[in-house]
Design goal:
The chain is elongated. The chain has two domains: 102 residues, no CATH class; 118 residues, Sandwich (Immunoglobulin-like), CATH 2.60.40. The chain contains two helices and 21 strands. It has 248 residues and is mainly beta. The strands form four sheets. Strands 10, 11, 12, 13, 14, 16, 17, 18, 19 and 21 form a ten-stranded antiparallel β-sheet that branches. Strands 1-4-5-8-7-9 form a six-stranded mixed β-sheet, with no helix packed on it. A three-stranded antiparallel β-sheet has the order 2-3-6, with no helix packed on it.
Length: 248
Amino acid sequence: MNKVNFEQTGGFPLETNTLSFLQSAYGSLAGLADLGGQNYILNGCDTVGANVSNGTVVIDGEVLPFIGGAKLARVIIEETVAEKTFEDGVSKPVYYTRVAKMVAAGGVLDFDSLKKVSNLLDIADRIKDQQVVQWTPVSDNELNVIDPGSSRCWMFKMGKLVVLTGDVAFTYVAPGLQRGFGITGYPVIGDTAGIQRGFMKIFKVPDIDSATFNDMWKNSSGQNLYFSVSAPENTKWSISFSITLFTI
């Protein structure tokens, strides 16, 4: 950031161009506001009952003090201009003070659209247990033979949110139709909040003829992923799946 060295002998020339230089220097810090987007709450602005506390907001990329009070629907930017009398005796506008405050109607945006951003330490705490792991699917039934060379699965975990996704190629080697397929092998994710459903598509390899398209789910006991499948015997099939789980 630009700066001015005042600590020099000889009588510093403190003139308007120096003050303009200082204003442009600290004004460049406003670019940091882009870290959170165009409109958000930096601090304060807490709703307690029917009132909102003071704070600091960013509106259209500008950092502004927020004047709290009784909660109203909209936010307005209010500018107050103060004049000063110059040496030539003429009063001119000098100080421009801008604040954000609430109004019942009009304004520039809804108060409820302003969201408070987390500080970097809070964000670090949230993602410190994030994991991305590749895992190998294992059939829960020896009649479903998985092709390891054509099967790739992944786990994405952040806190209590877990996504299991991937592709599993298998052949049902018994007579008749395969009417259900379960796999294990994924990393430990913790207990899930009841039965949770995801999405899957099954198709024949290599000509991509679709078999039954249905859904998948994970039971609450946390042992298997189950796929609803209707696939003929001795034909190779591939399942593409994704399930988002919420752990307890």
